Amino acid sequence: MMDAAVRTFGQRGYRAASMDEIAELAGVSKPLVYLYLHSKEDLFTACIRREADALLAAVARAVAPELPADRQLWAGLAAFFTHAAEHPDGWAVLHRQARTHGEPFALEVAAMRDKIVDYVAVLLAAAREGDAAPLPEPGELAERDVVALAQALVGAAESLAGWMNDGGSVSAKEAAATLMNFAWVGLGDLMAGERWSPR
After folding, report:
1. How far apart are the first and last CA of the chain?
2. Is the pTM of this model over 0.90?
């Protein structure tokens, strides 16, 4: 039932999706859908939560804490873009539908985004403290700057994943590499031809 709901909401949008259509796709009766989830709003909220949890879990599974900070960030980005590419309906629910239909849906996505930002900020803070050398002068970034960089990185990842899924003609790995190079090497060095590589 949840799979059918995510597919319907992702492809048709929240307003256009009907409970009848979801029930038919799931192979269950409409009253059964209402028995488990009392309204279309409740069903959509459940879809947002499920897809957010799946995305967060995919990123967390991919990042091994024993790796250097740059490899952790690479693994997290690769997992993020791979998950978005492999679950386009779930990504559409999170990235487009939930954000455009107001509260409480936007608040659910904002909570997921805050968790991802916190996670990225931890990786950047570890890099700042010397686990790797991604920044020109490690140790000089304030905590506020680390959080700001994490916000920027997550925003860029969301935008790039949306473009990728809309037919941007890049793979998940290419999207991850683009953002990794932009974030880790820096725009100045990247324009000069220097690139980060997982080796």
Report:
1. 43
2. no
Q: How far apart are CA 38 and CA 59, in angstroms?
A: 31
pLDDT at 67: 86
Give the pLDDT confidence of 129-174 residue by residue, as tens digits.
654 444 334 345 567 778 888 899 999 999 999 999 988 789 999 9
